[in-house]
Amino acid sequence: MKYTYLLLLLLAAACKQEDPIAFIGDQRVQLQDTVTIRHTFVYSEASAQRDTVRVNVNTIGDVSDRERRVKLAQETEYILEITTTPAGQVDTQRVERPYAAVPGAHYLPLDDPAAIALAVVKPGAVSARIPIVLLRDPSLKSADYRLRLQLEESDDFKIGEKNRTSILIIISDRLVQPSFWDVNVNYTFGRYSVRKHQFMIDVSGEKIDNEWYETRVRNVVGAPQQYKNFFTAALADFNNNPDNIANGSAPLRESDDPAAPLIVFSN
Question: Average pLDDT in the 121-131 region?
Fold first, then answer.
């Protein structure tokens, strides 16, 4: 019998006290945050073959009057595969996590001259939004691919805080859970599912993505509850529609599995 568990990256580092970094005299760079970035091409025109996400970095040390390079590299992710024999013997093996993004297929290689030219901190700046160019490969329609980026030392920067060196970008060409859902799931729209996400798009006619949340919900007084009420009412209409009941699509569930949880807009 085989079980697969996520191997938490940098687990050993997280479990011990790190020595403080001596910042004096050093030029260092670190990520502004390490929140997972999710990007899907599903909203883009069919002709759109690339798009850009940005990784925010902050510098530590003196401001420079020249352009400074930030170096990012793809980091291999691992899972711990645990196999148990019928006799009860346990074997563990560290293997690469599947669906790693492929340079040249899912993103512009980070050592491409065009990518290198974009990965800079401008003169006089103490932060930068580093563009990562994503590519629309057909494989993104059937699976989500993972691009784990790791800050590395460059000619201009050493590395800052160790817990701010790695960030994950999930790339897809289908509906994926927007980043805003990670921090608002408990009090806005309830548990995420692709079917719920699609239902929200269908009944509202709006893109339910991070930009939608930032511009239409987050900073608008009363908007989260208003949208929640709207989706709840639309779901009730759908579930009570005789045609939907007759064809088996109501009540709406998170998947086609008859035992799948019902979709609800609540905590």
Answer: 97
CA distance 38 to 232: 26
Using CB atoms within 10 Å of the CB of residue 158, give its burial: 0 to 12 exposed, 13 to 18 middle, 19+ buried. Answer: middle
Q: How does residue 84 score in pLDDT terms, banded at 50, 70 and 90?
A: confident
Report the candidate in 142, 165, 131, 144 with the shortest Cα–Cα distance to residue 60: 165
**CA-CA distance, 144 to 132, in Å (whole number)?**
17
- What domains lie within the chain, and their CATH numbers? 26-172 (2.60.40.2030), 180-246 (no CATH)
At residue 248, what is the residue type?
G
Check if the beta carbon of residue 79 is closer than 8 Å to that of residue 191.
no
DSSP codes joined into one string, 31-92: ES--PPEEEESTTS-TT--EEEEEEEEEEES---SS-EE-EEEE---EEEEEEE-TT--EEE
- Check: CB of residue 135 under 8 Å from CB of residue 128: no
Do residues 69 and 115 touch, judged by C-beta distance below 8 A? Answer: no
Q: Whole-prediction pTM value?
A: 0.75
Average pLDDT rounded to a whole number, residues 217-227: 91
Q: How far is CA 22 from CA 27, 153, 159, 161, in A?
A: 11, 16, 11, 11
